[in-house]
Design brief:
Largest sheet: 6 strands, mixed
Number of strands: 13
Helix content: 25-40%
CATH architecture of the largest domain: 3-Layer(aba) Sandwich
Structural class: alpha/beta
Strand content: 15-25%
Radius of gyration: 17 Å
Distance between the termini: 33 Å
Mean pLDDT: 96
Order of helices and strands: HEHEHEEEHEEHEEHEEEE
Strand order of the largest sheet: 2-1-3-6-12-13
């Protein structure tokens, strides 16, 4: 899928204009975009990036993309990010890289959001990919119980929720913001908006990985071409 990801990233560059402040997403496809953006910057393009994770910031520095702190920008003209799943209504699951809180802050503050994916991320219903929920470590077990109840009450097929661990087995994964990630294995989320609302009302939930009505453009990279879907939030 590397070629498909590269094609999606290259297509997203067509939306970038000189002088823009860009939200820079996280994940493998977003990192390809950042690398390609760095080549344009080296050629004279003037842009500034707002990274959504420490890893993204490191990637941008390596690519030569100038960065600015999120609290010091007047506007974010465009955010380019990947997704773990995209459904037929252009709702997203994000957070596989544990950056969902910062990704959603930047996406929500942006004038437009472009989502770049390969065909494997396109689904009829969200939920096959475990839904990440970023939570405060305090009272995590209590929060997990309420997450389970919220998912079941909004029609999710399953709602098994597990604490995400570090890949090396050294303990729970800690996000850039100092929180934990609970991954909910729903299999199918039939009522995305209802589920998003229910999760957002739980004390202890810092943010969830359902991105609803945030994407303006979906770019699906194929092996030999791309499909561009321009959406309306209205």
């Amino acid at each position: 899928m590397t070629v498909a990801k590269e094609n999606a990233a290259m297509a997203a560059l067509e939306f970038v204009e000189d002088g823009m402040t860009l939200g820079l997403g996280s994940g493998s496809t977003a990192e390809i975009f950042i690398d390609k953006l760095g080549e344009l910057v080296a050629g004279g393009l003037k842009v500034t990036g707002v990274p959504t994770s420490r890893r993204t910031a490191d990637c941008a520095v390596e690519a030569g993309v100038p960065l600015v702190d999120a609290d010091k920008v007047k506007a974010i003209h465009l955010t380019i990010d990947g997704a773990d799943e995209v459904d037929t209504l252009s709702n997203l699951i994000k957070g596989g890289g544990a950056c969902l809180l910062r990704e959603k802050i930047i996406a929500n503050a942006s004038e437009r959001m472009i989502v770049i994916v390969d065909p494997s991320k396109m689904v009829d219903y969200l939920g096959a990919f475990p839904l990440p929920v970023e939570v405060d470590p305090f009272g995590m077990a209590l929060t997990a119980e309420q997450i389970y109840a919220a998912l079941k009450s909004t029609g999710c097929v399953e709602a098994q929720t597990v604490l995400r661990q570090m890949k090396d087995g050294s303990g729970p994964l800690v996000t850039d913001g100092g929180n934990y990630i609970l991954d909910s294995r729903c299999k199918k989320i039939p009522n995305v908006a209802d589920t998003a609302l229910a999760l957002s009302q739980i004390p202890g939930v810092m943010e969830h990985g359902l991105f609803v009505d945030l994407a303006d453009v979906i770019i699906i990279g194929e092996q030999e071409h791309v499909k561009i879907m321009e959406l309306s939030r209205e």
